[in-house]
Amino acid sequence: xxxxxxxxxxxxxxxxxxxxxxxxxxxxxxxxxxxxxxxxxxxxxxxxxxxxxxxxxxxxxxxxxx
Length: 66
What we know:
It is a single chain. The protein is mostly helical. The protein has a domain at 23-65. Helices cover 42% and strands 0% of the residues. The chain has helices spanning 31-45, 49-61. The longest helix is centred in the middle third of the chain and has 15 residues, at 31-45. The chain starts with 30 loop residues before the first helix and ends in a 5-residue tail after the last helix.
């Protein structure tokens, strides 16, 4: 059996930033944005962080269509 690889420096640990204050707000009067925010809220309740992130991306990009 071979010896595991050794590194001269410890690994870099990146911070986990779950600052929910940075989430985009839906545009007032836009049904699409309101629905995305509702899906995001339901995903957060069940711990589906991938869907929360996806909804944030879609809400940020959605105003381009307005």
